[in-house]
Amino acid sequence: MKKIILTSVLVCIFIFVNAQSDTLFTKKQEKIPCKIIEITDLDIKYKRADLSDGPVYVINKLSVIKYVLSNGYTELIVPDELSLENEHGNIIKNRSVIKVSPFSMVNEQISLAYEKVIRVGMNFDFELGYSNSNFTRTGGFSGGGNIDNAFNSGFYVKPGVKFFLGQDYSVRGLKYAHPLKGRYIRLDLACSYLNYEGVKRTEYVRNPVFPYTSSYQSISTDISTVSYGGFINYGRQFILGNILTMEYYVGVGFTGQSNSYSNPDYKKSLNPFNNYPYSYDEAHNIMNYHGFIRTDEIGLSFTAGFRVGYILPDRSAKDKKKVNSN
Amino acid sequence: MKKIVLSFLALLFFVIAHSQSDTLFTKKQKKVICKITEINELDIKYTLAGNPDGPVYVVNKATIFKYTLSNGYTELIVPDELSLENEHADIIKNRQVIKISPFSAVNNQVSLSYEKVIKVGMNLDVELGYSNSSFSENEIFSNWYMGNTFNYGFYLKPGMKFFLGQDHSVRGLKYAHPLKGRYIRLDLAVSYLQFKDAIAYVYSMTPGPYGGYYTTYKTTKTDISTLAYGGFVNYGRQFILGNILTIEYYVGVGFTGQSYSYSNKEYASKINNPYNYYDAKYISNYHGFYRTQTVGLSGTAGLRIGYIIPVKQKPGSHKN
Fold it and tell me: Which of A117, A264, B45, B204 reaches 20 to 30 Å from B303, CA-CA?
């Protein structure tokens, strides 16, 4: 009997204390019974109901949905629509993006990229591309010579890590607006495979035997080529309407190259008087590896891009909402 | 007896005082017994437990690991992951970098640099380079008519970086890290190059048997040693990547002098006319910099990637 009375008294005290206290409802879906002391433009100051002698807590008004005072007065906190402080507050947990390059068809290629925040300031970025010279049938540019006229297709991969540049100086309270937004340096590897079909060369060949008649003769081959290397890119990414990203980048790097001919005789001249052995090694001239442009011999390579992305919603947030609604 | 009672009372007072006080645990492993009066987004305000009528202390929340209130309530302080205020706090004591120039092979050279913070805003920077014309088949910036001649050498560029800071200041404005930012670097430069078997084609006009002249030429060979030395003013910017690497670019302009000598004295006498371009004075690519002949106006540029050398942790210290 005593126990029941004690429990009832405790419940009564709890109800009484809570009934006399105010309540804050935060965006993290916390409910804080407290005594609100001050409400300013930017902050709300309160003391926790269970710690009336404890410290004054100051919470950013932007992280509160509403508050209810002990007399029943309720106010929804409407964020300042002009505020840039919490511009991307709604998508701060959305940290992965799928991207396409809308103008890549100009270079006979399509690409898909995926970016994910590893930790704030450091993102993983992976791009996969497919090229096919029949996309626009404009001929494209490979490196000049006979290879420009041959059908070619291939793919490339570019895995890399983005490092956001932050600021040279710091001020108290300065923050990243969003881990997907800002200027960055991306260090990435690149590997591109291309296959040229029916590369055809025509030569004016002189018959070495009397009467030395000359004629045009052709020879053809398929060429497979792989280029691989590393790049340093500078870029900037923006967030559009808390839904999309848009970014540009330029990069420079070094690449190596290896080639193989289905017809090894292609490299030799058809003309018996011409013994210059490498004059038709056209694969060396291939420059356009679609993921990048490569200069002959030195291997100095360049890349640039413009990508538009869709910010993937955070799954854990969705799951939480489901649990709460249930 | 009195002593025992007094000691007991003192102990009791101490226990009561401490049981009614809060505690701050700092990242420097200090334990502060206090009365916490306010906790906001950036700071914690408190008065010392031993001096409740004393001043209110305000401590940056980022320096606190956790706090415990007198009723036992404890909260771990989780740093704001988006904060740029403490972006490089983990490496703020790491103040040395070793750097390479990833694209230097384009100019047939390799280099290694070392940077060390002397005081915030002023860093020592030394670059040592080695050049060899056989590194790559093509040399973009060749040395005029001597571009095809095998050559090798080294250069040294000791200098001082002065970070530019800001034209205006705001309370609380700080350098993010002493290795980061825009800078002016003043450096000296000395470069030595050795050319092997440089060939000059010396043309001469010979009277023909039927009047007029015809041209003949002879070749002459020599080794050339050359030294260029001077000073540069560079503008650059350095970034920190992932608290591990640095990346920097710079461009610079300066003046350099030049001296050279030929192993074959005959070579020098034969090319000693104003129309001959085999003269060593036309050597312009000194790898650490590019020199215009006669005037000595020189240019330099670079892109360097560095590894931030971790400072040795003192025994007993820990990271949070």
Answer: A117
Window 101-160 of B, Cβ < 8 Å to A:
102-103, 105-106, 136-138, 140
| pLDDT 10s digits, B262-288 | 888 777 776 655 556 677 888 889 999
pLDDT tens digit sequence for A268-326? 888 776 655 556 888 888 999 999 999 877 789 999 999 999 999 987 766 655 555 54
Give the one of B138, B170, B174 whose C-beta lies nearest to A298's C-beta.
Answer: B138
Mean pLDDT (chain B) is 85
Mean predicted lDDT score pLDDT of chain A = 86
Q: Does A172 touch chain B (CB under 8 A)?
A: yes
Kindly indicate the confidence band of residue B318, based on its pLDDT and cuts at 50, 70 and 90: very low
CB contacts < 8 A, A to B, total 123
Q: Hey, are the CB atoms on A172 and B172 less than 8 Å from each other?
A: yes
- HEC per residue, chain A: CHHHHHHHHHHHHHHHHHHCCEEEEECCCCEEEEEEEEECCCEEEEEEHHHCCCCEEEEEHHHEEEEECCCCCEEECCCCCCCCCCCCHHHCCCCEEEEECCCHHHHCEEEEEEEEEEECCEEEEEEEEEEECCCCCCCCCCCCHHHHHCEEEEEEEEEEEEEECCCCEECCCCECCCCCCEEEEEEEEEEEEEEEEEEEEEEEEECCCCCCCEEEEEEEEEEEEEEEEEEEEEEEEEEECCCEEEEEEEEEEEEEEEEEECCHHHHCCCCCCCCCCCCCCHHHHCCECCCCEECCCCCEEEEEEEEEEEEECCHHHHHHHHHHHC
Is ipTM strictly over 0.90?
no
Q: For chain B, positions 216-275, list CB contacts with chain A under 8 A.
A: 239-242, 245, 247
Which A positions 90-149 lie with beta carbon below 8 A of chain B? Answer: 92, 119-122
Nearest to B39 among A50, A58, A252 (CB): A58
Tell me the shortest Cα–Cα distance from A173 to chain B, in angstroms. Answer: 6
Angstrom distances, CA of residue A115 to CA of A47, A243, A291, A303, B316? 42, 14, 17, 18, 39
